UniProtKB/TrEMBL annotation:
The keyword Phosphoprotein applies. Gene3D superfamilies: 3.40.50.2300. Pfam families: GerE, Response_reg. This is DNA-binding response regulator. Keywords: DNA-binding, Phosphoprotein. It comes from Acinetobacter qingfengensis. The modification 4-aspartylphosphate is found at residue 54. Residues 2-119 form the Response regulatory domain. InterPro entries: CheY-like_superfamily, EvgA-like, NreC/VraR/RcsB-like_REC, Sig_transdc_resp-reg_receiver, Tscrpt_reg_LuxR_C. GO terms for molecular function: DNA binding. Residues 144-209 form the HTH luxR-type domain. Transmembrane segments: none annotated. It comes from the Bacteria.
Length: 215
């Protein structure tokens, strides 16, 4: 079994690795610290049997990485591991395709339970989570998620860089492509998101943000 941990905090990655090994000593565990590394690992293969994904990552905005990866790699189950424990965020993560949600305050035994449950094809949620929740943003987020799912991996990378405020020439330099290529990607992104300019694109992607709380 191959488990991939995606988290930009080295100390927490180490703790999570130990927790996984305690429950699944035979598992092969790999780790990445950013969305770019995450995609590189997925594209170079083989696909992991399970991904443990943090919501706060360099190169992502809120639920955007979860939404896009689920669309590009639908066969890979994803468990979100986050310091956010609000019921609204947990339910939103499941709505966007996560198969489980582990708060970072959870005891190690819950990590093992969650992994085994998800690998069996079921959804795992914290035992204390209320089972019903109404989110008035659900329809807006669902529509935006569908638009983001239509982006190619490279278009997604470009969109995240646009959201960070980078100019086309800066994005071209970072991705080692021509500025004309980036302009073409940006045009395609605007069309798929149904927006007219960079400001509208950033506002759109911000709809998938998590509340203004920091891990």
């Amino acid at each position: 079994m191959n488990i991939l941990i995606v988290d930009d905090h080295p100390l927490f990655r180490h703790a999570l690795i130990q927790a996984v090994r305690y429950s699944l000593p035979q598992a092969q565990i790999s780790e990445t610290a950013s969305v770019a590394e995450f995609y590189q690992r997925l594209e170079s293969g083989p696909e992991p049997d399970l991904v443990l994904l943090d919501l706060h990552l360099p190169g992502a905005s809120g639920f955007s990485a979860l939404v896009h990866v689920r669309a590009q790699y639908p066969a890979i189950p994803i468990i979100v591991v986050s310091a956010h424990e609000e019921a609204s965020i947990i339910h939103r993560a499941i709505a966007h395709g996560a198969m489980g949600y582990i708060p970072k305050s959870a005891p190690p035994i819950h990590i093992g339970e969650a992994i085994k449950t998800v690998l069996e094809g079921d959804i795992w949620l914290p035992p204390s989570l209320p089972q019903t929740f109404h989110d008035p943003r659900a329809s807006i987020e669902t529509e935006l998620a569908e638009r983001i799912q239509s982006l190619t991996p490279q278009q997604f990378r470009v969109l995240m860089m646009v959201a960070e405020g980078l100019l086309n020439k800066q994005i071209a330099y970072e991705l080692d492509v021509s500025e004309a290529t980036i302009k073409a990607h940006v045009t395609a992104i605007f069309r798929k998101l149904g927006v007219q300019n960079r400001t509208q694109a950033v506002l759109a992607i911000n709809a998938l943000n998590i509340e203004d709380q920091k891990i």
